[in-house]
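Aim 2 progress update. The chain analyzed this quarter is reproduced below.
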Amino acid sequence: MPFSGATGPSKESLWSSRLACREMESKVSEGGLNVTLTIRLLMHGKEVGSIIGKKGETVKKMREESGARINISEGNCPERIVTITGPTDAIFKAFAMIAYKFEEDITNSMSNSTATSKPPVTLRLVVPASQCGSLIGKGGSKIKEIRESTGAQVQVAGDMLPNSTERAVTISGTPDAIIQCVKQICVVMLESPPKGATIPYRPKPASTPVIFAGGQAYTIQGQYAIPHPDLTKLHQLAMQQTPFTPLGQTTPAFPGLDASPPASTHELTIPNDLIGCIIGRQGTKINEIRQMSGAQIKIANATEGSSERQITITGTPANISLAQYLINASSPDPDPHGRNTFIA
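Predicted structure tokens:
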């Protein structure tokens, strides 16, 4: 029931609210609160390999013994998202198994090492930015309390993860300290649900450089150059219609041949949260797309109240096709079927 006037809540309601919070914290700590939660972890490829195990045996065992659903994002990415869903007690069991597995990996790696001190187990949670304020607390009071009561180190990233409204929360310590820390973080997340829509972080695939040689396009994978037929066709088309000439010279005219096909204009509508991927740091990505495609590309300024930005591409049909292809390839989640990801 909403409060009326300026009287505020009674002492009795404040006291009962605090008791309810303490009761919830106690139940969560004991794994007795039957609430389904979803916790997301950010892991490097080596960590993911450890969790999966040989032929998937380790993750299968974790799922069966904890009772939690453990999903690992797919894709050729340096980072992967591990999603753990289930009742609180199942989540804590899954976290315990992951933390002890990582400690085992550290112990094994030290068997041939001269290091004297054992590094802590480290996990990175992905938390909606709107909940991070509650996790930090007024003047850092909550995060300090969690550190002191669990013995774990907790750091909340100042910046949001790229193209998302989530932040990384890094937890370091012994497996037992990490488990206690996760329990307290779960209490905060239950007390303070996310505000507004959350744009989840999606790790971007490792960018593969493209080279053109002998009229063919290749992507570099490890030590090998892999032919890329789609880019080859677009590149050949662009080369046919927009011949490159040395700077300062004009394209020579050939009788009966129009060496400069008429330019046309094409527009794309891009969601605001993806525009950063296309522009790149200090405009490096968009400049690269301009140079590779030969097209003029203009990005409209953000409009108040609009969730989209307008991109105008000017050039020959081949220029425009190549620019569109490269823009779509810059998206963190390109259409796997090769269709135009953005609205034309």
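The first strand starts at residue 36 and ends at 44. The chain is about 40% helix and 20% strand. These observations will guide the mutagenesis experiments scheduled for the next reporting period.
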